[in-house]
Each structure stands twice: as C-alpha cells, then as structure tokens.
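[INFO] parsing input record for Angiopoietin-related protein 3
[DEBUG] input buffer:
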Amino acid sequence: MKIILLFLLLILSVTNAASNQRRTPTVSPILSSTVQPPTETRSRFAMLDDVRLLANGLLQLGQSLREFVHKTKAQINDIFQKLNIFDRSFYQLSVVTSEIKEEEEKLKKTTVYLKENNEEIRNLSMEINSKINNILEERSQLHSKVGGLEEKLQGLSQSIMPLEQIQEISGLKEVIETQEKTITDLLKSVKEQHEQLNYQNGKIKSLEDKLSYDNFQDTGEKSLDLSPETPDPFGYLTMNSTNGTIDINDYPVGCSHVFKSGQRKSGIYPIKPNQSEPFNVYCEMSSDGASTVIQRREDGSVDFDQSWGKYEHGFGKLENEFWLGLQKIYSIAQHGEYILHIELEDWKEEMRFIEYTFTLGGPATDYTLHLAPLSGDLPDAMSNHTGMKFSTKDRDNDKHDESNCARNYTGGWWFDACGDTNLNGRYAWIRPKARPQRRKGIYWRPAKGSPFTLKSTKITIRPST
Ligand SMILES: *[C@@H]1O[C@H](CO)[C@@H](O)[C@H](O)[C@H]1NC(C)=O
Ligand SMILES: *[C@@H]1O[C@H](CO)[C@@H](O)[C@H](O)[C@H]1NC(C)=O
Ligand SMILES: *[C@@H]1O[C@H](CO)[C@@H](O)[C@H](O)[C@H]1NC(C)=O
Ligand SMILES: *[C@@H]1O[C@H](CO)[C@@H](O)[C@H](O)[C@H]1NC(C)=O
Ligand SMILES: *[C@@H]1O[C@H](CO)[C@@H](O)[C@H](O)[C@H]1NC(C)=O
Ligand SMILES: *[C@@H]1O[C@H](CO)[C@@H](O)[C@H](O)[C@H]1NC(C)=O
Ligand SMILES: [Ca+2]
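[DEBUG] output buffer:
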C-alpha cells in the first residue's frame, strides 16, 4: 500500500517537474529582456528543487522498499517455520497411525478370543442349568417321598414301631437336608456365574462397538481377515471326473505345461505335479515361459503369522496375498532344477530382484532350503539361509538356542539365528520408523548396506531350463 502511494507521489513530482520545465520557456518571452537573467537562475533553482524532490522521493521509495523486503523476509521465515512444524506433526501423526493400527490388530485378536471364551462360558452355563433342573426335579421327588414316609411314620407311631425303622428315617432326613444345602450352594454359584457372564457380555459389546468405530475410521484400507479358521480358499480341486470334464491325468504338471499348451495369460490354473493331488496355482506368463508364484504380499489383507500346518498347506488368496504352501512348492520343485526369483518393492516404489538356484527338501527335512545366488540388482541376503529348515511359531527349527525366531519376528521362514531376511513378516501399511517394528515387518538385510523394509514382495519359481 505504502509502495503504491510512494509511486503515485513520485509520478506526481515527475510530471510536476516536467510541466515546470515546459512552463518556463513560455513565460520567459513575455517578460522583458532586461529581467531575463534572474528568471533563468530562478528557473534553474526551480529545477534543482524538483530534482531534490525527486531524489527525496527516490530515497523514501528505497527505504520503504528495504522495509518491504525485511518484512517479506520475516514473513517467509515465518512460513518456513510453520512448514517445519507441519512436517514434524505429520511425521508424529504417521507414527501414531501405525501405533493405532497395531493396537487395532491386537484389539481384533482380543475380541475374537473373547468371543470364543464367551461362547464357551455360555455353553457351560447352559450345561449347569440343565444339571440344576435335574437336581431340582430329584429334590421334588425326594420331597414327595419324604412326605409319604412321614405320613407313614405318623401312622406307624400310633402303633408300635421298630427302632431300626425310626433310625432309617432320621438318616434319610439327614441326607435330604445335606442335599438341599448343596443345591442352594449350587444355585448361588450359578447366579454368580450368570453375573460374570453378563459383565463379560457388556465388555465384548463395548469392544465390538469400538472396533466398528475404528473400522469406520479407516475405510480406506481393507479390513483384516478376522476369522483365522477360514477354509482353505484354494484347496485341491474337486472337479473329479464328473463325466465329460477333466480327467485327473489331463492336468498340466506345472505352469510350464500350461504355457506349452498355448496359454499366454497370467492367472490361476489347476496343475497336478507328479505324485501330487491337483491344486490351483497362479501362473505368471512372460514372452518366453511361465513361472509359478509361491508368495505374494501387497496390501496386508492376509495375516502371515500362521502355524506350521498353514505354512505347509498354504493360505491366502491366489489373486492377491498368499503363501502357496511348502508341500505344493515341494511337489512342483521335484520336477528338475528350479530358479527362485524374488522381487521386492521398497517404500520409494523401487523394484529390485534377485535370482537363486533353488532346491527344496521334502517334509522329512522340514523343507530344508538350498540356494546359490545367480543374478539380480538386489543385494544378496539369502545365501546364508542355505541349509536352513523352515520354522514357524509352533515349530522351532532355527539355529537360535534361546529364542523362537518365528515367534519373535512373526511369520514362517527359513530362519537361522534369526537371520537377515523374513519376507513373511508382518505387513506395515506405512514405512515403520522404529527399528524393532521394522525388524518384525517384511525384512531384507544384505550383508553390506542398510536393510530394506518392503511395500510388496513376490516370489516365483521356474524351471532353470
Ligand atoms: C457351544 O455349543 C454349540 C452348540 O451346542 C456348539 O456348536 C459350539 O461348538 C459350542 N462351543 C464351544 C466353544 O464349545
Ligand atoms: C469322485 O467323485 C465320486 C462321486 O462322484 C467320489 O465317490 C470320489 O471319492 C471322488 N474322487 C475324488 C478323488 O475326489
Ligand atoms: C463316464 O462315462 C463313461 C462312458 O462314457 C462311463 O463308462 C463311466 O462309468 C462314467 N464315469 C463316471 C464316473 O460316471
Ligand atoms: C514327472 O513329470 C515329468 C514332466 O515334468 C514327466 O516327463 C515325467 O514322466 C513324470 N514322471 C513320473 C514318474 O510321473
Ligand atoms: C526373542 O524374544 C525373547 C523374549 O522377548 C527375547 O528374550 C529374545 O532375546 C528374543 N530373541 C531375539 C533373537 O530377538
Ligand atoms: C553369513 O554368515 C557368516 C557367518 O556365519 C557371517 O559372517 C556373514 O555376515 C553372513 N552373511 C550374511 C549375508 O548375513
Ligand atoms: Ca530356536
């Protein structure tokens, strides 16, 4: 604002000066020639005044410009500071988000556990109720019996009664009394249990409410698979020779056979390796052959913290996240020499790969791994895992005497002690900041250089010839 005003002032003074200059020549001829010299000096003075005015204006302009620059600098500094603060709080927010996510996961697990417990308690309570009903019935029967006996006793007491009969009756009375006492005790404990059950129900309800609220909060993400016991989504084919369809011997032995039969589209195909039941695999087709995908992580939609049985038979969905299963991988890799291809994407969305020659031992060796690096732009972190058996939280085959690596770092893997890779670790939706969290995630640490924390992974195998 000030600047504009100053400009106006400046322009005004300049035009003034110009008009003054224009005016002097028109005025001078009118005046007589004798007074010419003083007019000349006066006009020169006038011009000097104008120049002074102009210089003054310029000086003021300069000063206010400087002021303006100072102010702008201060404003920019301010903005930078604000940006810094924003940056910091954004980072804090992302940390908090990851923590919330972890807690949510825990909460979900607790809820499932509580639900199971609740059902058990309900079943127990139902059982106790039915038992009590039986007891009550028995009691009323006993009552009526006692009533009858008492009547009889009265009738008998009129006449003479044998001593042992009286004793028998009083004994019976005692029995009945103690039984009544136990029944009241039982009723009391049942009541207590009912109360506890109600309390737990309330707790579960509030947990569920909280959970649905949390779910609502991050609708952007896929919800976790809540039921850990979902049926194997890609179990063996049951398409059994229902006449006119596929004969069991017509299945391709592997993806390479699918490729040879003319298929060029990546996708899910049934195969039947030698000495195996048929099963579905995801075949990835390229221009010169096919690979079988044995593992894929991309969005955290599948929980990879699974037991030995699950790792042996496979879990997840072939279309997105899954572990094909050691048994199936083994039956495929039986067919000759295979190459293991590992493709990793980090949080900068950079893709890298590494290839190894690949041999997998059978179930008797707990699927011992044998690898030798071949090529790729990903630093090697796996050749140390050669000769390692597969471990899960419920089967510790690792080389760490005091720890269960699969339990510490989650997921099944060819752990040594505990090793530098685990591609079946916990999926993180953002890059974890803290080291222990990173180490629990999908992890790849080469001998040299810093570890990779990963956004997505894909492991495939293909015949080496
Ligand atoms: C509870 O009882 C129901 C039906 O009787 C049964 O399906 C369920 O498995 C039982 N749950 C537990 C935890 O025993
Ligand atoms: C094939 O189906 C028949 C009945 O249609 C069944 O008895 C048999 O067990 C099935 N075989 C396999 C391998 O599923
Ligand atoms: C399939 O059809 C053939 C005749 O075409 C028949 O001999 C055979 O028993 C049928 N198999 C089954 C499982 O129905
Ligand atoms: C195993 O599969 C291969 C194809 O990979 C086939 O050539 C071979 O005959 C099969 N062997 C047996 C014993 O079935
Ligand atoms: C595994 O966890 C246990 C218990 O928290 C701890 O004592 C042990 O040092 C951990 N081992 C490794 C290799 O991190
Ligand atoms: C492999 O193991 C050796 C000794 O067991 C160790 O010195 C080396 O750092 C390991 N290499 C990798 C890549 O972990
Ligand atoms: Ca161990």
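[INFO] The CA atoms of residues 393 and 407 lie 5 Å apart.
[INFO] shutting down worker
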